[in-house]
Amino acid sequence: MRRKRVWVISPLFYLMAAAMAAMAFLSLPHSRVLFMVELTAAGLSVLAVLVSDYLWRHNVSSTVRSAKNVLAAGEDRAFQEFALPVAVVAPAGDIVWANAAFVQSLCGGGPYQGENVLKYIYPKTFRQVMGEKGACVAHGGREYTVYGARAGEGYLLYFVDDTYFKAVNKEYREKRSVVCLCAFDNREELIRDSLGDEESRITAGVEAALRTWVAEELGGFIRRLSNGRYLFITDDAHIEEAKKKRFRVLDAVREVKNSRNNMSATVSIGIGRGAKDIAESERWARQALEMALGRGGDQVAVRSEGDTYEFFGGLSKGVEKRDKVRTRVIAATLTDHVRASDRVFVMGHKNSDLDSVGAAVGMWAVIQKGLEKPVHIVIDRLRTLAGPVADMVDSAYPEEDVFITPLEAMQSITDKSLLIVVDTHSVNFVESHELLQRAMRVVVIDHHRMMVSHIKNALIFYHEPYASSASEMVTELVQYIKGSAIDGVDAEALLSGIMLDTKNFVLKTGVRTFEASAYLRRRGADTVAVKKLFSSTLDNYKQKAQLVSGAEIYKGCAIATSTWEYEDLRVAAAQAADELLTILGVKASFVLYKVGADVSVSARSLGDVNVQLILEEFGGGGHLTMAGAQMKNIHMQDARRALLRALDQKLAEVSSESK
C-alpha cells in the first residue's frame, strides 16, 4: 500500500522557531538581556519540537515492530481479509495498521495514516475497551462493540458491528408493556355534602382527563376498577416521553374543582417500569402507588429495576382524612398484638424531639396502665431534644422504669417482644438500628411522607401523612384502646408533640388535630406547663439570634449557616428555622450547622415549598413543611453550594409543572 508523507510536527512550528530566533537578533542592538531571553526561548522551542518528533517516531516504530510480530507471515493477509474491522494502534492511540474492513467501515475508504483511534471509540477509553465485555461505541451512524487485546507495546482492536441487534434490543425495551395504577386521592372529600349531579360531574371530569391523556399521549387503554381506582397499560417509550413532560395529567386533573369550596381534584399514579413480565409490572405498580399515596398523593411514582423510585408532582398539600374507621381497626389489631407479647418496647427516631417522645409516652401509658403489659421507652438521653419531657415523666413515675437505653433493650428483647416505632418509618432514622433488626415483631406509627427506605414486613404499618404529628395519631389510638389510662402528665407530653409539629396550631392543623387536643385537655393537660417545655436557655437564644442575623435570602428562601459548634446547636437551628419563616417574603428556611465532620440541615416552610423533596436529595426526609437531612464528610461551603443546586433544580421543576 502506498503511504503518504506524514508530518509528525507541522513545518509551521519550525518556521515559528526560526522567526523567534530572528526576532532575538533584531533585539540585540536595543537590549542584550532581551536578546538572551528571546534566544533562549527560541532554542527551547526548537528543542521541544525535536524531542516531540523523536518520541513520536520511537513510539510508532516500536509499535510497528510489535505489529510485525503479531502479524507475522500469512497472518497479515488473513487479517486483511478478516470480515471484522481490525486495527493495531500505538499506546497513545495512533493507528499503525488497519485491515480493509476497518478502512471501508470506519474510515469511509480513505487513508488512516496519522489518524488517532480515540476518535473512533470516543467517549470510551482503552481501559474500558480492554475489559471483558468490551465497550459500546457509535461512529458514522453505526453501533459497534469494541474489544481489545495487547499487541506487544500497542493494542489490537476488534470492531463488531451490532447495529441491528442493538436496534432490536432498543425496540424490545421501548415496546415492553408497562402497567399503571391510578387512584382518585380526594374523591370522598370532594363529593361529601354534594348533590348527585356534582358527584357525577367531578368523577366524569377526572375520568375524561385520564382517558384523554392515556389515549393521546400514552397510546394505551384505560379501565376503571372500583372505589376511584383505574388501570391503564402502555409501553416504556411512551412512559419515557411522559417523564420528559413531567406527567402533565396531574395539572389537567387539578383543573377539576368542587363548586362548593373550589377544592381541586388530585390523583396518584403508580407505574411499574422495566419488569420482566406483566405480573411483575402490576406488582411494582401497586408498590409505587402505595408509595405515592404515602407521600401525600397528587404525584406519580415510577418504580424501576433495582427497587429504584422516581417521583413527579406532589405540589399540593395533603387533604385531611376525617374518617376514623381505620384508626379504630388499627387500635383493635394493635391491642391484640400487645396482649400476645411478653413485653413491649417503644422507640422513636434519632435525636428524638417532643413529638417522638410525646408519642412514645402516650403508647407507654396506654400499654402500661390500660393493657397492663411491661413496656419501656427506648431513648438515648444524651442526644434527645426532649429532655424536659423525659424529666417530667421520670418525676411523675419515680417507681417505674419508663426510659431505658438501646443497650438495655437489646439485652432484654425476645422473639415474643413487640417493638413499636413512632414518628419515623425509615430504617436509617430509628433510635437503634440494631434493636430494629433484632425485633421479630414490629409496629410502625408515623405521619411523615413515605420514603423508599421504609420499614418493610411490619405487623402494622399505620402511616397517615395527612396527620399533623405522631402524637395526634397516638392520641386517637389510645381513645379506642383505653382512653382513661391517660393522665395529666401523659396528656401534656402528647400535647407538646402536637404543638411542636403544628407550630402552635398553625401548620398542618385539621379538625382531627383540635379534636385530639380537646381530648388531651379533658384528660388534664395544662397548657401553661406545656408551654414551659418549649423554654430554652439564654445560650440557645443567643445561638438562634446569631443564626438568624447571618441569614441570606435566595429565591424566596432564607438560608443560614453556622461556622461554629455548640453542644445544643440542633435546638437553636430548629428554632432559627422557625423564626426565619416570620420574615416577610420568606417561603422556606434552611439552617445548616456542623456536627463533627458532617453538616446537618433543618428546613421549614409555610407550604409553598416542599422542603421534603429538596432534602431527599441528601438522604433526608420529613414532610412538606418540616424536614431534615445530614450531609456526610463535607465542608460547610460545599454543603451550601449543594443545597443551592438542589433548590435551583426543584424550584425550576415546580415552575415548569405549575405552568
Description:
The chain has 659 residues and is α/β, with parallel strands linked by helices. The protein folds into 5 domains: 11-68; 75-166, Beta-Lactamase, CATH 3.30.450; 185-313, 2-Layer Sandwich (Alpha-Beta Plaits); 325-532, Alpha-Beta Complex (inorganic pyrophosphatase (n-terminal core)), CATH 3.90.1640; 538-658, Roll (Diaminopimelate Epimerase, Chain A, domain 1), CATH 3.10.310. 46% of the residues lie in helices and 19% in strands. It is built from 25 helices and 23 strands. The strands form 4 sheets. It has a 6-stranded mixed beta sheet. A 6-stranded parallel beta sheet has the order 14-13-12-15-16-17. Helix 23 (569-580) links the parallel strand 19 and strand 20 (588-595). Helix 1 packs antiparallel against helix 2 (32-70).
Task: Describe the SSE topology.
Layout: H1 11-27, H2 32-70, H3 75-80, E1 86-89, E2 95-98, H4 100-105, H5 118-121, H6 126-129, E3 135-139, E4 142-151, E5 154-161, H7 163-175, E6 177-184, H8 187-191, H9 196-218, E7 221-224, E8 229-235, H10 236-244, H11 249-254, E9 267-272, H12 278-294, E10 299-304, E11 308-313, H13 325-339, E12 344-347, H14 354-370, E13 375-378, H15 387-396, E14 403-404, H16 406-412, E15 418-422, H17 433-438, E16 441-446, E17 460-463, H18 470-482, H19 488-502, H20 511-522, H21 527-532, H22 538-549, E18 552-554, E19 557-561, H23 569-580, E20 588-595, E21 598-605, H24 611-615, E22 621-623, E23 626-631, H25 636-658
Parallel strand pairs: 9-10, 12-13, 12-15, 13-14, 15-16, 16-17, 19-20
Antiparallel strand pairs: 1-2, 1-5, 3-4, 4-5, 6-8, 6-9, 7-8, 10-11, 18-19, 20-21, 21-23, 22-23
Helix pairs in contact: 1-2, 13-18, 14-18, 14-19, 18-19, 19-20, 22-23
